[in-house]
Amino acid sequence: MYEPLSNEQLIAAATDFGTPLYLYDTRKIEEQYNKLTNAFKDHPTRFFYACKALTNLNILKFMNSLGALLDCVSIHEVKLGLMAGYKPDEILFTPNCVDFTEIMAGKEAGVRINIDNISILEQFGNQFGGSYPVCIRINPHIEAGGNYKISTGHIDSKFGISIHQLRHIERIVKTTGLHVQGLHMHTGSEIKDIDVFLRGLDIMFGIASRFGELDFIDLGSGFKVPYREDEHETDVTTLGSKVALAAAEFEKEYNRKVEIWFEPGKYLVSECGYFIVKANVIKQTTATVFVGVNSGFNHLIRPMFYESYHRITNISNPDGAKRIYTVVGNICETDTFAWDRVLNEVREGDLLVFHNAGAYGFEMSSNFNSRLKPAEVMFVDGQFKLIRRADVFEDLLRNQVI
Q1: Running DSSP on this structure, what letter comes out for residue 391?
Q2: Could you confirm whether 272 is annotated as catalytic?
Q3: CA 73 to CA 30: how far, in whole Å?
Q4: Given the residues 97, 135, 272, 332, the one annotated as active site
Q5: Residues 114, 182: one domain?
Q6: What CATH number does residue 239 fall under?
Q7: 74, 104, 257, 394: least buried by Cβ within 10 Å?
């Protein structure tokens, strides 16, 4: 059972590497990966880490060491995956709204190609026929997820080819000779109800009958992880059992073994991440008491962009009296991390920790306000190891042309 890093360990890391600081505990990543492999052990299932959540090369190498495969959404993520030691056929490349040249670059790299629109599918079929197998991303028109911005399977989504365009897909496959190796769907993120996955699987099984040589059906991901104290993660154990039963029944009719694939991202890395900041000022107004920290939405945009909740703890004063604060950043925009949050008394100079900061934290960071990006540290083999240096001023000028 995973034992979170102690306050003393987090303070030591902040002292050694400075703040703000992103810190990732590989023990939690491994625990989450093992949960998945155990839950789906009754049917051949493969897990592709959705690396858009966190692409540090050291994280990719660690995922590779666990046996996780890799899901990429840009050609540069593909290149990072190859640098991390992944073989081309261990990478699934699922871009959207890209030029055909990027699809070509993926093919030249030898990775698995997942096509999500009619235009690209037709171009690929006309150029390569059945010489290079492809996967097709279907939009099942299932709306799911914790926020509309991360719901990707509804009817207005830009992702995937609508299930109502199956006849068009079939015409392209028949006329070009495309070899369709797999079918893919992804409905969103933060999905608590396992019936969403089972409903999607049933839809995919129905579509599969139109394609006779499928090797896999990919259900994307969206497994829920708890951000609040009273939340629970997706019941992957029950889901695994039900997927195994459904797949076995399908294979009897399909007369062919088919693997089930998933692409967990947040599920693997969210809870491994700690984001440590320093309280710069305590500012009392007529309406509230602000804690102004040495970071902002340039480092952690999720609360402002998705209205997401991150648990915050005061590791410098964990036994202090409970008080109510609004935690804000140092950006020249409204960058509120938390409204009216109960925290142990915060003093100027105290260290605060944002939990569940491993997914889409550093990855979505920027240099807005000409602020510098923080360092990244990995806790592995009982040691803190620097895996990205903090920006220095010269990094802001690196690509500018005077």
Answers
A1: P
A2: no
A3: 23
A4: 332
A5: yes
A6: 3.20.20.10
A7: 394
Question: In this structure, what token pair is assigned to residue 247?
Answer: 């797949």
Query: pLDDT digit string (tens) for 121-178?
Result: 999 999 999 999 999 999 988 864 444 444 444 566 788 999 999 999 999 999 999 9
The pLDDT of 93-113, averaged and rounded, is: 97
Widest distance between CA atoms in the chain:
71
Is a pLDDT exceeding 70 seen at residue 29?
A: yes
Q: What CATH number did the domain enclosing 337 receive?
A: 2.40.37.10
Q: With beta carbons less than 8 A apart as the criterion, state whether 116 and 96 touch.
A: yes
Contacts made by residues 160-169, CB under 8 angstroms, sequence distance 24+: 160/116, 160/184, 160/185, 160/186, 161/116, 161/117, 161/118, 161/121, 161/136, 161/137, 162/138, 163/138, 163/139, 163/203, 163/207, 165/118, 166/207, 166/210, 168/118, 169/118, 169/121, 169/136
Question: In this structure, what DSSP letter does residue 230 have?
Answer: T
Residues sharing a CB contact under 8 Å with residue 164, sequence separation 6 or more, in sequence order: 141
CB 63 within 8 Å of CB 91: no
Range of the domain at 310: 273-397
- The C-alpha angle with vertex 24 and arms to 7 and 398, in degrees rounded to 5, equals 120
Give the E-state strand segments of 303-363 in sequence order.
312-314, 322-328, 336-344, 351-355
Q: Is the pLDDT of residue 95 over 50?
A: yes
Q: Is the pTM of this model over 0.90?
A: yes
Q: How far apart are CA 83 and CA 99, in angstroms?
A: 23
2 in any annotated domain: no
Q: End of a domain among 269, 289, 310?
A: 269
- Both 305 and 258 in one domain: the answer is no
d(CA 376, CA 20): 9
Distances (CA, A) of 195 to 67, 164, 225, 385: 27, 22, 17, 40
Do 141 and 163 touch, CB atoms closer than 8 A?
yes
